[in-house]
Amino acid sequence: MKKLVILFAFFYSFFGFSQTITLDSIQIKTTEISTDYKVLEKLHCQSIQSKLLYENPEMYSFILGKTLNKRFQSFDYKGKKGSILYFEFDKDPENAKGFIEGLLWGGKKPNKDHPESIVIKGNLLIILSFPFNSEISKELTDLIAGK
Asked: Can you list the positions of beta strands (E) in the chain?
C-alpha cells in the first residue's frame, strides 16, 4: 500500500496536477511593492511596438495563438513611468519567443529605444515596458519572474 501511495504522489506531481499560473496570480498586488509606487490608470508603453501588440494581439494570433485574456498595470516610481502588459494565450508563447524579441527589440536584446523585458510563464506572456535599465524595470521584472 505504501508503494501505491508513493507512486500516486509521483504521478500527481509530474503530470499536470500542479497549480496553474493565471493572470490573477501573476499580477502585481500593491501590497507587494513600496508605497512609493504610484498606480496609473493609462497605458504607458515605452515603444510603439509594445503598445501595438497590446492593442491588437489578434494581429499576431497566427504565431502567438488566440488571446484568451489581457490586461495591464501602469506605475510611476521616482518619475519613471511604464506599464506591465499581461497576455494569456491558448498556446505556449515560448514557441514564439524569437518572434516576440524581434517584434519588440528588432534584435535579440532590449536597448534604449526598445527597453521592454519579457517573461513567459506557461501560456502567459508578460511584457514590462519601463525606461531602459531603470530601477523600476529591474525591481518589477524580478518580482514577476520570481512568481
From this structure: 38-40, 67-77, 80-89, 117-121, 124-129
Residue 87: helix, strand or coil by DSSP?
A: strand
pLDDT tens digits, 38-74: 999 999 999 999 999 999 999 999 999 999 999 999 9
Local structure of 68: helix, strand or coil = strand
- In angstroms, the CA 29 to CA 147 distance is 12
- Tell me the CB-side half-sphere exposure of residue 104, using CA atoms within 13 A: 30
Three state DSSP letters for 39-63: EECCCCCCCHHHHHHHHCHHHHHHH
Name the burial class of residue 89, with classes exposed (0-12), middle (13-18) and buried (19+) by CB atoms within 10 angstroms of its CB.
Answer: buried
For residues 101 and 56, is the Cβ–Cβ distance under 8 A? no
Q: Cα angle at 120 between 49 and 110, to 5 degrees?
A: 45
Encode pLDDT of 64-121 as tens digits: 999 999 999 999 999 999 999 999 999 999 999 999 999 999 988 999 999 999 999 9
- pTM of the predicted model, to two decimals? 0.85
